[in-house]
Design goal:
Blueprint lengths: L4 E3 L1 H14 L2 E5 L9 E5 L9 E7 L2 E6 H7 L2 E9 L13 E9 L2 H4 L6 E2 L5
Parallel strand pairs: 1-6, 2-5
Antiparallel strand pairs: 2-3, 4-5, 4-8, 6-7
InterPro entries: DUF779
Protein name: UDP-glucose 4-epimerase
Organism: Phaeodactylibacter xiamenensis
């Protein structure tokens, strides 16, 4: 099965640490405000989701969503969540650790596009 979003081993370790501190987590791909276009990590229930958000997959047991408008631009792209040193200027939970989540991307092949699972509305994930 082809996944729309993946996670690096280093990011998995950070997710484990954040989950231990904050409980269940959720990721939402920022659309460019404040810290650019970055994956943001929240405690589940801290971000209100609705039908303007789409679930594109799970990373290390955490739902990963983005706005429907942004998804229209990125629907042909596989995302990989990683980390980098340095503080971002977002509200994401990893910022106090002196690191931030980042996205690396690549285009799907035609064969992969045909194998992608459907996305779901954010209100179905909340």
């Amino acid at each position: 099965m082809v996944h729309r979003v993946l996670v690096s081993p280093e990011a998995r370790d950070v997710i484990d640490q954040l989950r231990e501190q904050n409980g269940p987590l959720l990721f939402h791909q920022s659309g460019g405000c404040c810290d650019g276009s970055a994956p943001m990590c929240f405690a589940r229930g801290e971000l209100l989701l609705d039908d303007n958000d789409v679930w594109i997959g799970e990373i290390h047991g955490c739902p990963f969503l983005m706005s429907n408008d942004q998804f229209e631009y990125w629907k042909h792209t596989q995302l990989t969540v990683g980390i980098t040193r340095g503080r971002g200027s977002s509200f994401s939970l990893e910022i106090p650790l002196g690191i931030r989540f980042i996205i690396r991307s690549r285009l799907f092949t035609d064969e992969e596009l045909a194998q992608l699972p459907p996305v779901r509305k954010g209100s179905e994930v909340a």
